[in-house]
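Bit of a strange request maybe. I'm writing a small parser for structure token strings and I need a real example to test against, not something I typed by hand. Could someone generate the tokens for this chain?
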Amino acid sequence: MLSYPEHRSYVREQLAAVIERHYGRPELIAGVATGAVAIGALVADFLGLPFVYVRPEAKEHGRKNQVEGHLGQGMRTVVVEDLVSTGNSSLRAVGALREAGAQVEGMVAIFTYGFPQAEQAFAQADCRLETLSDYAHLLEQAVQTGFVRPDELELLGTWRKAPSEWSGALN
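Reply from user aminoacidic:
Good idea to test on real output. This should exercise your parser:
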């Protein structure tokens, strides 16, 4: 997506609109490394807001930061993510921001599989998640475009319920 200016502009503007619609105007945008650093910076720039990014863990050298960039205490922050699967890495970033003093309003992502495990994790972390698209809409579009046959939907639905246990295959 980042290689195509018209696509990245579209995603940037849609994420910015979701942020303003669901969270109002935050004071800071944070991107989750590494996949959401570029898109988060684009969204922050589009909204005219400061930007920080969050590493999976603190650096082992230098200042040993996990959060890079200026983060003032209590700053109302929205986190940008590219993809949410289990939610673990996304919520580690939220935890690091909260520990660093951010007031995390919630997260926006381009896509989520909508795994029950992720939905439960976000609820337990008291972190709202808004996305541009999800697995159900992806399947709907795949059927409409003929990429997936309607009779394959049930099989693909079983994958979403338990992907680690799934061994089905499309013929």
